[in-house]
Design goal:
Blueprint lengths: L4 E6 L13 H20 L3 E6 L2 H13 L9 H26 L6 E3 L3 E3 L12 E7 L1 H11 L2 E4 L5 E5 L6 E2 L2 H9 L3 E3 L6 E5 L5 E3 L6 H12 L3 E5 L6 E2 L7 E2 L2 E3 H9 L9 H12 L4 E5 L4 H5 L5 E4 L1
Parallel strand pairs: 1-2, 1-12, 2-9, 3-9, 4-10, 12-16, 15-17
Antiparallel strand pairs: 4-8, 5-7, 6-7, 10-11, 13-14, 16-17
């Protein structure tokens, strides 16, 4: 029988446990902790594709670039995404491989630098809204706006930030390469940070774009196209909450697509945190997926056994 395929989306913030543990070594250790739990799912007989976020890590690269701008060229946003795909992919690939080796499983692993096609006419390009990078003074922000063509936004007392488009993912360019790797028993890390945003020009060539594609939306698209059985979203909470941090906060063990859509309509999920995850979960299930599980990395085994996390089904 075919092994069940899991697409596991690991949040970029999962690699940074707190403000005191932000170094590359700290992130490597955090990746190792998550890898132990992913290894258990592989040990239980699942095929796995790991995707991951990269928000904090891209922010670090942009800050380094900003600090070094008088000595070196600055790094384009799409290159920052590619850089983090390699770096975080390396961390996952190595720690997961080492964990499997401890269990007597000498598996092959690969990280695929992944491009994601977006529509150059996506309305998001006309209304950038995704904040990236450090905070600036109004003077510095306006300078970047004038000299570098940035769109900047006032975030009140914290200062100004660059905002970029967040278009919808349409196509995973390396999807068939990922499929071939899976069919040959390779554990794949792919679509890091939502993928490198690219558009096709009039003759079909790919060109990068300064944008950020939502990691959960791209992970959902990849999961659907690969025919995954379960889409796992690893995040910072044990379970999805209604009225999160409010007086009527309530954890959800299970909900249907219809219930999830209703909760979204009622405004229970914030746009910058849980809403994109629920939206991706609903899309996956509407397009043939069997189950979505949302939980923290250290609860993956319990959640997959049905003993923890939030489970969403058709």
């Amino acid at each position: 029988m075919r092994k069940p395929l899991l697409v596991i989306a690991v949040g970029g913030n999962s690699l940074i446990t707190d403000s005191q543990h932000m170094t590359v070594l700290d992130q490597y250790r955090a990746a190792g902790q998550t890898s132990r739990h992913i290894a258990s799912l592989i040990d239980d007989g699942s095929n796995v594709v790991v995707t991951h976020g990269n928000g904090p890590q891209v922010g670090f690269i942009l800050m380094r670039s900003e600090l070094a701008k008088d000595m070196l060229h600055q790094v384009p946003l799409e290159s920052c995404v590619a850089d983090t795909q390699g770096a975080i992919g390396y961390q996952i690939q190595q720690t997961l491989g080492n964990e499997l080796l401890k269990r007597g499983m000498n598996r092959r692993l690969a990280t695929v630098v992944t491009q994601v096609v977006v529509d150059g006419n996506d309305p998001a390009f006309k209304k950038p809204s995704k904040p990236i990078g450090p905070f600036y003074s109004e003077e510095d922000a306006c300078h970047h706006e004038k000299t570098d063509g940035w769109t900047v936004m006032d975030f009140g007392r914290r200062g100004w930030r660059r905002v970029v488009p967040s278009p919808e993912p349409l196509e995973i360019v390396e999807q068939e390469a990922i499929r071939i790797l899976l069919e040959n028993g390779v554990i794949v890390t792919a679509a890091g940070g939502g993928g490198i945003p690219v558009v096709r020009n009039e003759i079909g060539e790919l060109e990068g774009r300064a944008a950020v594609v939502d990691k959960d939306a791209s992970s959902c698209l990849l999961a659907v196209n690969l025919g995954a059985d379960t889409f796992v979203i690893s995040t910072a909470v044990d379970k999805v909450m209604l009225d999160f941090e409010g007086p009527a906060q309530k954890a959800i063990d299970h909900m249907t697509v219809e219930e999830a859509v209703g909760y979204m309509s009622d405004g229970h999920f914030a746009s910058g945190s849980m809403k994109p995850k629920i939206k991706a979960a609903v899309e996956f299930l509407k397009r043939g997926g069997k189950r979505v599980v949302i939980t923290q990395p250290h609860l993956l085994e319990e959640a997959m056994a049905g003993d923890n996390g939030t489970h969403i089904t058709p």
